[in-house]
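Researcher: Next entry in the queue.
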Amino acid sequence: MAAQRFVIVGGGIVGLATALKLLAKRPELDVTLLEKEARVGNHQSTHNSGVLHAGLYYKPGSRKARLAVQGIREMIRFCEEHGVAHEICGKLVVATDAEEVSRLRTLLERGQQNGLRDLQWLEAGAMREIEPHVAGVAAVRVPEEGIVDYRAVCDAMSLEIVRKGGRVELQSNVTRITPDGTGCKIGTTQKEYAADYLINCAGLHCDRVGMLAGENPEDRILPFRGEYYQLRSDRTHLVRNLIYPVPDPKFPFLGVHFTRMIHGGVEAGPNAVLALAREGYTKTRISLPDLTDALSFPGLWKFMAQYPRMCWDETLRSFSRRLFAQSLRKLVPEIEESDLTPGGAGVRAQAISPNGELVQDFRLVQRANALHLFNAPSPAATASLAIGGEIVELIFQSSSS
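Model: Structure for this entry, 401 residues:
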């Protein structure tokens, strides 16, 4: 009997991890991964801060919380087994004034509920023993967090898929998906593939791939660009490892922070502005179809009406290094505008509901012969192996019931 044919759309880190989990669960499967770029992991997977997130922020009991905690431990094991550069350096989440202290205590309790190990509450003196240049009145140290080379992770995953008998097809942009008996035919810019089961891990384009497969997702993917600066090499001593603010619950993003990078240097950022293209890594990159898609979605306008001050401040900061430095000084007062040099940028694929709410949790939609991952923002890179495992368990649980 022919092996069951699984086709995964999307060669980012979650698609790669899902292929690995499929082959680990059922080595006899016929697994093909389709990636539209000339290399795997070219978008969200490698355009990020390179942080291993341990699961501090996420609502206890949520899929995000569970898979982040499980995922960081799986990712560390993968890096160890495959010689991928990584370091568990720990992170400080800093309350910069008395108002933030109660929110920081809530974060500590949430992390404990989520199963994080050895969290520490630090008063100002103990905090500055770890990060001498940081400002604030208290901090939580998250010792399990770290930094990693996600590019190397993606490349190692791709090689491992092929070694285990799977296929990674590059430059294969999916253009159509048509039902075919109990499965489907998947047309790409290269050739057509037959699938008994489709897994949609298309990230920035997951809603569109879902529509090709006959889905009508209520939520829409909106691209938020996060822009980074780097500290000048003679100023990197101001940051030893990872320094994050206490998130403001009135706003949906974490706020600018400092990240030591695995191959040297310190990043500062990101902000969060609406990108004018789903792969719009620069201000001048515009896609009229993407922009029209975003502007015609009522959820965008409701989101902007709900957070007008945040949207305005983030936009201003995008065009002003002075304002960016001012935000960073809340954590490290010695930062000067001249310390910042332009860094990279990433685009976050964020699902937003028609009423303007950000979809907070990972969102999986399962059908008889398909599974769609319709929301997988941060910490999806860290949690990718756990997400892949969750997808595989869902598929085989339903097939055996």
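Model: Residues 63-82 form the longest helix (20 residues).
Researcher: Noted, moving on.
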